[in-house]
Amino acid sequence: MQVRFAAFVSSMMAVGLLLTAALACAIPGSPTGPMPTVPLPSPSPDLSLAPEDVVIYPLSVPKPGGRWLFYRGDILSFDITPRHLGAIPPEDLIVRVYRLKETEREILTEGAIGYPAFDGVPRARLTWVWDTQDAEGRETLVVHLDPDDRVRAGDKDPTNNVVTLTIRFVTDAARPAPETLAAWATTTTNCCIIHYLTCTRAERDLPMLIRATDRAVAFAQEQMDTRLASPLEVYFIERVVGQGGYAQESIVLSYSDRLYTGEGLETVLRHEAVHLLDAPLVGPATPALLREGLAVWVAGGHYRPEPIPLRGGALVRGDWYIPLAELASDFYKHQHEIGYLEAAALVAYLVETYGWDEFLSFYRRAGEKPDISPAEALDSALRSSFGAGLEVVEQSFRAWLSAQPTQPKDVRDLELTIHLFEAIRRYQKTSDPMAYFLSGWFPNATEGRQRGITADFIRRPQAVRAIAVELMLASAQEALRRGTLDEAAFLIRGAERALEGDFSTPPASEYLAIARAVADQGGEVQRVEIRGETAQVWVTPIGDKNACRPLQIWTLHRANATWIAGE
Question: I want to staple 456 with a disulfide (CB 3.0 to 4.6 A). Which of 58, 171, 245, 250 is the partner?
Fold first, then answer.
């Protein structure tokens, strides 16, 4: 229906252009004379719902057989995003999900449209609402937007508010390791309560994680001169979410074997700890620019340790700088790496110029007025704290950035980092929507642990093409960490081509061949190092569902245009 509608509008626009051109060529003084053009009325939007507007979590089972395939016993969640809301208040809309039983409709769940994600798009998010223990092999669901037909204005055709989905299930016995072996476990440290999943990387590396967590939280507390009122809860999960972690009442960090967002564990821990430690300083309207900037600055980097002022100088030299009033507005919708780095550089400049105590006073003031915009909040707090408004401070800030001794390699490193994470987010948006930070779902880990839910925290894409892309992204992260920028650029370009569907040339062809060779031998690749005609790969065996097994290191050899795998 949407395709036909778009074609209709396009054709009508073409007619309008031809009519305008004909009238413009009328001969002056002719009987017709010059005639004014009359714009064609635009059809008003009509509330609707399409199959692609429904997303179900956790990730579908990685087997052929359709879009929605799950293990019996999965506890499913639904994301439902209506189209063409127009002037309809989202809070006036509900969505209801029915489960068909022969000719009967059974209400499975319902909920209101809200704004639960960074993208600000109204959606219904129905969390952990269907325990599928009793599911049949094939189930039919009906998703109905405004099922009671309460909305009239803006919804001319209620029949296009309904989507029917076929959900298929395979037996729970088919669930692979590590899912079959994963259970929540807990340990207590000096600062924290650490939760992790058994038979995962976190359990293997637990002694190191304990030390790293204690160091990171102690560092954040010292820098913030604040102490936790109670132990901090930290969850290490076996899947990538967003850029590598998030903070709610607790900290949730990605710590998987194929961690393509990078290995800056303590940096990310510091960042998320600051988001919990700054709670006494935050007002009802503290701009996200300041909260994220403070977290990056205290952590000493965004994804890894980095000199914030020097990296900030690269923003100006690379012509990436965003005016502060613009950046403060819809902070999370701006380019992520640029926005976070610029915010951290602003904090660094303010602390260096005015001092830490004065900065904290400014930070408190910036959140006190919920009835003004973030840019106005910045301007007001700057005037109250430092006697200079946003425009004046920004001029000095830009001069400070321009004076940093940034080198060309620093600019290129930042450019590659931007490209790499844009590729990561593109991959997530298309292949792992739960992980995409603007609209994805970051589940409440405490509730998940209490309910014994593990699939949402462990299941991830397992198709060989997805694995190949993740491996390239992870290898590019490592190349950036080492400073081998040409190698990083080669890998990023390969990942970008692969995301277009082109695996025909290296490095994508090499990584895909390696992922396939290992899969053919009953393993899943987690890391790759290619050295000429050989490749060393770290592999998770997937055949044994009854025992936790550490990673194995295999050596692969190039043979003609492919790779031969063996332990």
Answer: 58
Grouping H, G, I as helix, E, B as strand and the rest as coil, residue 104 is strand
Residue 35 near residue 436 (C-beta atoms within 8 A): no
482-491, pLDDT tens digit by residue? Answer: 999 999 999 9
Q: How far apart are CA 244 and CA 254, in angstroms?
A: 5
Whether the Cβ atoms of residue 145 and residue 162 lie closer than 8 Å to each other:
yes
Confidence bin at 324 (pLDDT 50/70/90) = very high
Using the predicted structure, report yes or no on whether residue 451 has a pLDDT greater than 60: yes
Global confidence as pTM: 0.88
Q: Give 243-255 pLDDT, tens digit per residue.
A: 998 888 899 999 9
Residue 207 and residue 216 in contact, taking contact as beta carbons nearer than 8 Å = no
Q: What pLDDT, in 10s, does the model give residues 66-90?
A: 579 999 999 999 999 999 988 888 8
Exposed, middle or buried: residue 487 (CB in 10 Å: 0-12, 13-18, 19+)? middle
Domains, in order of start, for the chain = 1-43 (no CATH), 51-174 (2.60.40.10), 176-277+442-460 (3.30.2010.30), 283-290+299-406 (no CATH), 462-564 (no CATH)
How far apart, in whole angstroms, are the C-alpha atoms of residue 97 and residue 162? Answer: 10
Instruction: Confirm if 105 and 98 have CB atoms less than 8 A apart.
Output: yes
| Backbone φ, ψ for residue 163 (5° rounding) | -130, 135
The string of DSSP letters for 324-386 reads HHHHHTTGGGS-HHHHHHHHHHHHHHHHHHH-HHHHHHHHHHTTS-TTS-HHHHHHHHHHHHH
Distance CA 118, CA 412 (A): 29
Give the residue-averaged pLDDT of 417-425: 98
DSSP assignment letter at 41: P
Query: Quick check: 41 pLDDT over 50?
Result: no
- CA separation for the pair 397, 272 (Å, rounded): 26
Q: Any idea which residue has 């839910």 for tokens?
A: 453
Specify whether the CB–CB gap between 313 and 406 falls below 8 A.
yes
Alpha carbon 111 to its chain's center? 24
- Please indicate whether residue 98 or residue 20 has the higher confidence score (pLDDT): 98
Give the DSSP letter of residue 228: -
Rg (CA), the chain: 27
**21: pLDDT strictly greater than 70:** no
How would you list the strands of the sheet with 534-541, edge to edge?
523-531, 534-541, 552-559, 562-564
